[in-house]
Amino acid sequence: MNLPKGPDSLCFDKDVFMKDDFDVDQFVADCRKHVQLEEMREDLEMYYKQLKTAMVELINKDYADFVNLSTNLVGMDKALNQLSVPLGQLREEVLVCALFHSIFFIL
After folding, report:
1. Which residue range is the domain that position 95 belongs to?
2. I need a surface site. Which of 30, 31, 42, 60 has the fewest CB within 10 A?
3. Which UniProt keyword terms apply here (predicted)?
4. What would the pLDDT profile of 45-57 be if each residue is shown by its tens digit?
5. How many domains, the chain?
6. Cα(62)–Cα(64) distance, rounded to whole angstroms?
7. What stretches in the chain show pLDDT beneath 70?
């Protein structure tokens, strides 16, 4: 998963959040070595807003696809129901052929 690119001026590396072993205490301790808590808070808030905007854009993009999917599926149940009868008949024919085939080899 790719996170949105944050401003170059952030006091942290955004990719650290995606690490399996991410530790918030270690993150804060590392950042405090370089900047004051107030600057870290401001950068985190700025990046949070950017993440939130990216999430809304992603939802809106995928929502249109979701709505189109449901529109495209209208009538699909009728088409599937129309196939069930011929498929049932074909199944019976295959079973009958298999039965005759088995009987033929027994005799």
Report:
1. 76-107
2. 60
3. Coiled coil, Golgi apparatus, Membrane, Protein transport, Transport
4. 999 999 999 989 8
5. 2
6. 5
7. 1, 107
pTM for the model stands at 0.56
- Amino acid letter for position 51: L
48 in the same domain as 13: yes
- Neighbouring CB atoms inside 10 A of 43's CB total 19
Q: List C-alpha distances in Å: 59 to 32, 52, 55, 62, 82.
A: 34, 11, 6, 5, 36
The amino acid present at 53, given as its one-letter code, is T
Which pLDDT value is given to residue 2?
Answer: 76
Fill in the amino acid letter for 62: D
φ, ψ of residue 11 in degrees (nearest 5): -85, 5
Query: 3 Cβ partners below 8 Å, 6+ apart?
Result: 14, 15, 17, 18, 51
